[in-house]
Amino acid sequence: MTYRPALMDTALGDGAALSDGAAELLRRLRGGRPVTRAGVGAETGWARATVNARLDELLATGLVVDAGVRGGSRGRPAGRFVFNAARGGLLIADVGASAARLAHCDLGGGICSQTTVDLDIRDGPDRVLELVTSGLASLPTRDELPAWAMGMSLPGPVEHPTGRIVSPPMMTGWDGVTVPALLEPRLGVPVLVENDVNAMVWGEHVLAEEPLDDLLLVKVGTGIGAGLVTHGQILRGARGSAGDLGHTHTAGDVTDREPPLCRCGKLGCLEAYAGGWALARDLVDDGLEVADVRDVVAALQAGDPRAVRRVREAGRVLGIGIADAVSLLNPSEVVVSGGLAVAGEHLLSGIRERVAAFSLPLATTGLRIRVSSRPHDVGVVGMADLVARWALDPARVNDVLARVGAPT
Fold first, then answer.
1. Which residues of 213-226 are buried (b: 16+ CB within 10 A; e: fewer)?
2. How far is residue 157's CA from residue 223's CA, in Å, rounded to a whole number?
3. Residues 180-226: pLDDT tens digits?
4. Is 330 in contact with 254 (CB distance < 8 Å)?
5. Is the pTM of this model over 0.85?
6. Which secondary structure element, helix H or strand E, spans residue 301, and what is its range?
7. d(C-alpha 237, C-alpha 243), whole Å
8. Is 352 helix (H, G, I), strand (E, B) or coil?
9. Distance between CA atoms of residues 89 and 105, nearest Å
10. Taking a C-beta distance cutoff of 8 angstroms, is the pair 8, 61 a contact?
């Protein structure tokens, strides 16, 4: 099934493209806080006529709307203007190893509808992308929120910004695939592809009540990965592979066994000790009938002492890798998310113990280590915000507006 976004055929008309200044003002207004013309002038230093002209451009597109007046102590009440998140919609696919969370969001990242689809990432791009597109097509949508863009996160190394998958350890058949080239013809909208943990750490950044500009998120699910926000920006590295914590190596004194073989072909990777698939392997050796990370969680929640022991050991192993990252990056928070985040203190106690023992004292001063408050949909939240910023970027917004047409 091919998803057909509800795009309009009408063009905006000659001369309706946003100026650079209006596009920059849109970027400032996207946070949703109502502003006045005087407030915009004070913040930007623009002359009154410039502010008026740029606001008028945005009002004509429907991306900014009149929010009414605010009374003052003297003079005429000041008119207020606000970003219109309901001007369009976004399609979001947060794809993991065994399932994808799909959502239809507004331009502010608010989730309008969502569902979960079971899949196996090892089935390859044709099968997985078919499940994603058919799942998106089945979502309830609002007619007034036509799709403007699509964002997809994937559990493997993603070359940024091309969306090409590069040597993924567990994504059979995906190596070298440029995902936007496959999805854009099906969906009829531009597609942004991101690593899943980058989307998750950005979701934590977006959801934070207080500024959280230096953050490390560790996803512990079938595999292990890390997302990094430094100085308020995602740290991707030179090619987009920063944060591959799962394939770093642990200190030899963590366990007394021989280094296990990882799925990447190397020995002793962090993931080969503490990933969900590794825990399932070890619990089978312990006599439990488990197949994947969901079975591991079920055994843990049932109080099976073998599952408790293995998860606590995984926490100590993880703590070694996280301790190195804390010393290198000095985050203000470490957030644990993913399928094993529900393990709570069984997992966190070992992490905290090893981080305290092996990280630099200054790096751990005031450091908070916690489980994500929204481990199931934080990736959707982050991906929605990333793709909204991308679609409305000054370098791209006019192409998007020309595609979707004038407001009705």
1. ebbbbbbbbbbbbb
2. 13
3. 999 999 999 999 999 999 999 999 999 998 888 999 999 999 899 99
4. no
5. yes
6. helix 293-301
7. 9
8. helix
9. 6
10. no
